[in-house]
Amino acid sequence: MESVTESRTPERRSSLAGRLARLGFTDAARAERLLLDAEQGPADDLLDALGGTADPDLALDGLLRLLPCADEKGVGDELREALAGEPATRERIIAVLGVSAALGDQLVRHPEHWRVLRDEETPDGNARDDLLAAVGADPGAAEPVASGSGRETLLALRVAYRRRLLALAGRDLTGRADVADVAAELADLAAAALEAGLAIARADVPEHGSCRLAVIGMGKCGGRELNYVSDVDVIFVAEAREGENEDAALRAATRLASAMMRSCSASTEEGALWEVDAALRPEGKAGPLVRTLASHRAYYERWAKTWEFQALLKARPVAGDADLGARYLDMITPIVWDAAEGESFVEDVQAMRRRVEADLNQRTADSERQLKLGPGGLRDVEFAVQLLQLVHGRSDETLRARATLDALDDLSRGGYVGRDDAAALSSAYRFLRRVEHLVQLHRLRRTHLVPDDEDGLRRLGRALGLRPDPVKEFTALWRRHAREVRRIHEKLFYRPLLLAVARLPGEEARLTPAAAGARLEALGFADPAGALRHIEALTAGVSRRAAIQRTLLPVMLGWFADAPDPDAGLLGFRQVSDALGTTPWYLRLLRDEVTVAERMAWILGSSRYATDLLLRAPEAVALLGSDTALAPRPIEALRTEAQAAVRRHFDSRGGPAGPSPQRGRGPAEEAVAAVRAQRRRELFRVAVADLLGLVDVRTVGEVLTGIATVTVEAALQAATAKIEAETGEPLPTRLAVVAMGRFGGHELGYGSDADVMFVHDPEPGADERAAGRAAHAAAEELRRLLSLPAPDPPLEIDPNLRPEGRQGPLVRTLASYAAYYARWSEPWEAQALLRADPLIGDPGLRDRFRALIDPVRWPDGGIDDDAVRQIRRLKARMESERLPRGVDRRLHTKLGPGGLADVEWVAQILQLQHAHEVPGLRTTRTLDALDAAVEARLLDAEDAAVLAEAWCLATRIRGSIMLVRGRASDLLPNDHHRERSAVARVLGYPAAGDLLEDYRRYARRARAVVDRVFYGAD
Fold first, then answer.
1. What is the pLDDT of residues 905-947, one digit of tens each?
2. Degrees, nearest 5: CA angle 304-306-309
3. Which end of the chain is more exposed for a tag (fewer CB within 10 A), N or C?
4. Chain centre to alpha carbon of residue 665
5. What is the DSSP string of 890-901?
6. Chain-centre distance for alpha carbon 731
7. In angstroms, how far apart are the furthest CA atoms of the chain?
């Protein structure tokens, strides 16, 4: 065959450069120079083979380096003959050189190793015998001992290991070995190296005969799915030989294990093999390196976590004492599956799922290039498969395969994973593992990153047979597989649950009801049977609605599982879907707007309060589409809408605008019903914004106060209009509503009553008794209208903070209030007026009432020492008398130490003492008062911060309790595990214990400030 170097004419050179470029050489001019400078360049068929490799330039460089080294070793002529006359041998050699610079370097150092790439030739014997012989150990011995433990032995191990690695790479890169077979062979080769490393260790540890040591492969080594370059995870188990002291034997075993690890990881001229990692052992790196069988059993039976049992799914003996390894496996297997029946199993599985999802959402800058940990990467497949094995392998022993692909096949055959999903995952997993192998082979380095340079991407694409644009085609194929994995991973747990209840044709195996129930239980559903009924009801039939639900539910079930109460979430979803199922926009919105569906799942699974609001007005689901739609509306916009609703039901003379749409309901009732519907929508808006973390605690209080203000204001207008329509004349008095307590402080919670006082001022010339009767009638009508049964949460109007409390008149004139406060007012009433804000009714009357009470609540010169003592005594009595019996006062967010009352009374006593001279203290808002006290140097800034933090956390806890339970409570839940966990999750805490610890710390610090500032303690 004519050599390409036989003719060096310009025409020949030009034609050679063009041919090289067409063959795929990126630097054709350089390749041409190298070929022309070579004493004997490659023949045409060899040149074609070079052009078919992943990186022709790299392959040519390697070949031109290998040939002279082979000549020096006396194997050059044999190599050239093989390259010329053995096509399969040529293909393997060139394929290796075109992918792996590291294996090219190995061939240059050991040219004779090319023979392992010869057609149908493999290294002599099995890997274990080969590597043991390389270190001078007898493969037939019960406990082989190497001829030494020095440098020469370590080098021999590495050379023998890499020789077999080279042979495997040759078959891999030419398609003679499937990716799963390659991974299995790599694991077997690693096991052989561990056995040889143990033989070297025995040569280094004279007392090795006192113990038995088994090496248990974990992770990819145990699962026989190892990479070319990877840490090898192991666990060591040992026992003393008969008659030997156990402590001494364990010390010897520990030395043996350490020496074995060093023999594999030590750096030499031939490099290291890989790190041996024993961190998966009981107690991790903090635990002993070597344990007895009994010690392993004790740990796994008492202390192990679910993730440790997940790791043990892949455990298998790989080196050392085979009998001891087998006994370890016999011991551990039932423990793994018994543990899966434990009480904490479901919680642990949920925590593992959340941890993996959190990892996926906290990626590094390189995450998009990650084959292992990136979105749609290998870990997604492996974790999902292992989790399904844990869930269903408890009752189905056919699901206990160690290797991911084998387990995936088993899950598909059993109906635990859909057949199409399993096929797609298997294809993607094989592709990703193949790419991972190619990436690692290049430099024989441990990496899972896809190259970000053009040459690296081109090499990968060509190695996978992609032409003519390998970079573009590889990138598209990789992204498509990653997207598919991510898509299927998100649904893998849930889609078969639909098949379990669907009445659809087909031969595909399906989950049994028991298996579906087990999976739902593992996902956190407390009532799996009920959940299956909901799924069946939502997906039954062949309607378009059912078809869309079958698309939505696999993803939404995952979101429900991530919420504090999955059962409530799924039930709420079914109820909303039943209410809106025939509405054309509803399912389309959920299908097309992922944000809406995900937020809906979280809301329904977290908050009974928000769910009840949504069920009463399902169309409010449209608000979930954007943060803008969930932003609180300005109070003026709400007021305009509410007043328009009232006007629609009354004509200009105060009479009905038209016939009542419902028998027995007049225009006032209809008007207030419309206003309460508006309130219901706005409560849902702020509740959802709160649950999603879009608003802070101050904003929530202001918004809820604004909603209540507009509602009461509209109800007052409707009540007044009704009375005027009935009497035929205008109300003979001006009327105002004074907000008190949290209402006046603009700090309303979801479950707060509206504390109010009513004040009126007769029109000039009006009869005072008639004016009083009219004002009383209007106030009573307002309360009646707001107490009518309605689908929105009740708004209780509580007038008990008025002078004389329940014994006093419901409504007083302005003059009556003035006389009372001038003559009878107690210090506690002045304190109550600190939160008084005339928000509703006649503007002039509101201003006059404010002018009346300002000197009472902000007395000139401040309150005297006697009043301070009275207030302190009252506070102390409240702490001892008003707390419900039997409750842990430390968990009471309102009256407990460091709770809301503590903080508010500190602010209020400073206001009573100093507001006359500090304008900033003349506010009804607690946090504003604390800020003003700091600015006026009446309160230390650090103390104020401590008080504000405690107040905000207690307020958030009260709000979250109402959101979660749908009913108010001041007590941090401590007797209902699910509610306690739900409140913690809604507040952003990973567990209830973290919330409790935080609250106690904040409250303890706040109480110390209260003792100093309020009570005057040292």
1. 999 999 999 999 999 999 999 999 999 999 999 999 999 999 9
2. 75
3. C
4. 50
5. GGBTTTSTTSHH
6. 59
7. 129
Beta bridge partners of 234: 217
pLDDT tens-digit series, residues 472-486: 999 999 999 999 998
CA dihedral of residues 253, 258, 263, 269 (deg, nearest 10): -160
3-state class of 729 per DSSP? coil
- pTM value > 0.90: no
HSE (side-chain half, CA atoms, 13 Å) at 244: 19
What are the angstrom distances between the C-alpha of 650 and each of 637, 657, 775, 788, 964?
21, 5, 20, 19, 39
**Residue 261: pLDDT band by 50, 70, 90 thresholds?**
very high
Round to whole Å and give the CA distance between 961 and 978.
12
Residue 656 bridge partners (DSSP): 650
Other beta carbons less than 10 A from residue 283's beta carbon: 12
Phi, psi for residue 268 in degrees, rounded to 5: -140, 180
Amino acid code (one letter) for 232 = V
Question: Around 676, how many Cα atoms within 13 Å sit in the side-chain half-sphere?
Answer: 23
pLDDT tens-place string over residues 642-672:
999 999 988 543 455 544 545 457 899 999 9
Q: How far apart are CA 675 and CA 652, in angstroms?
A: 19
* Amino acid, res. 925: R
Task: Dig out the tokens for 909 from the structure.
Answer: 């006593």
Rounded to 5 degrees, what angle do the CA atoms 763, 769, 770 make? 65
- Give the dihedral of Cα atoms 549, 550, 551, 555; nearest 10 deg: 90
Query: Is the separation of the CB atoms in 676 and 711 below 8 Å?
Result: yes
From the CA atom positions of the chain, what is the Rg in Å? Answer: 39
Are the CB atoms for 738 and 756 separated by under 8 Å? yes
Instruction: Answer yes or no: are the C-beta atoms of 139 and 132 closer than 8 Å.
Output: yes
CA-based nearest residue to 439, from 427, 452, 464, 456:
456
pLDDT digits (tens, 9 = 90+) for 427-473: 999 999 999 999 999 999 999 999 999 999 999 999 999 988 999 99
Residue 360 sits at φ, ψ, to 5 deg, of: -65, -30
Distance CA(556)–CA(572), nearest Å, equals 12
Residue 213, SS3 per DSSP? strand
Q: Which residues of 684-710 are buried (b: 16+ CB within 10 A; e: fewer)?
A: bbbbbbbbeeebebbebbbbbbbbbbb
> Half-sphere exposure of 804 toward its Cβ, with a 13 Å CA cutoff?
12
How wide is the angle at C-alpha 950 spanned by C-alphas 947 and 954, nearest 5°?
140
User: DSSP character for 41?
Assistant: P
Angle (CA) 67-71-75 rounded to 5° is 95
851 in helix, strand or coil?
A: helix
Confidence at residue 976, expressed as pLDDT on a 0 to 100 scale: 61
Q: Which residues, in sequence order, are CB contacts of 8 under 8 Å at separation 6+?
A: 36
Q: CA-CA distances (angstroms) from residue 191 to 132, 293, 457, 806?
A: 11, 21, 32, 85
Question: Measured in whole angstroms, how far is the alpha carbon of residue 1006 from the centre of its chain?
Answer: 33
**Secondary structure of 306-368 in HEC code, one letter for each residue:** HHHHHHHCCCEEEEECHHHHHHHHHHHHHHHHHHCCCCCHHHHHHHHHHHHHHHHHCCCCCHH
Neighbours of 409 (CB within 10 A): 16
Counting DSSP H helices and E strands in the chain, the numbers are 44, 10
Measure the CA–CA gap between 227 and 229, rounded to whole angstroms. 5
234 touches 274 (CB < 8 A): no
pLDDT, mean of residues 879-897: 85
Cα separation, 921 vs 928, whole angstroms: 8
Measured CA to CA in angstroms, residue 24 lies from 66, 132, 758, 842, 927 at distances of 21, 43, 90, 88, 72
Q: Judge contact between 743 and 705, C-beta under 8 A.
A: yes
> What tokens were used for 244?
């030997």
Entry field: residues in the chain: 1018
Separation CA 822–CA 369 (nearest Å): 77
Q: Is 277 helix (H, G, I), strand (E, B) or coil?
A: strand
